[in-house]
Amino acid sequence: MQIAPDEIGTTVRRRQLAQVQLTTILRMLEEGHDCADAVTRIAAVSRGLDRVGFALTATGLTECLSRAGGEDPTDAQRLKKLILSLA
Predict the structure, then answer these.
(1) Which pLDDT score is estimated for 73?
(2) Which of 54, 53, 51, 59 lies closest to 75, judged by CA?
(3) What CA–CA distance (Å, rounded) separates 5 from 63?
């Protein structure tokens, strides 16, 4: 499965944001900040990474469904496995 060029930029930006957030969370914990703030940030990172995963899966689904000549059963199985791995 290839990622569409317009999706790559969004995916990279979201991944970079998650990385910054994780670095911030670690620093907060090391510096003794309130755990509730860290948990709030962890939840935000988790949601952001979920969005990246779903966006990539949607790209794959779109590609799979748009192929001429029908759907390749192997691709459909791989896509289903990917979707379920996000649950």
Answers:
(1) 64
(2) 59
(3) 13
What is the C-alpha to C-alpha distance for residues 13 and 4, in angstroms, rounded to an integer?
15
Query: Residue 7: in which H helix or E strand, if any?
Result: helix 5-30
- CA 75/CA 81 separation, integer angstroms: 10
Q: Are 73 and 66 in contact (CB under 8 A)?
A: no
The pLDDT of residue 53 is 82
Which stretches in the chain have pLDDT values below 50?
Answer: 68
Q: Give the separation between CA 11 and CA 55, rounded to whole angstroms.
A: 8
Residues 80, 41, 9: CA angle, nearest 5 degrees: 55
For residue 37, how far is the Cα from the chain centroid?
22
Which stretches within 31-87 are classed as H helix? 35-66, 73-85
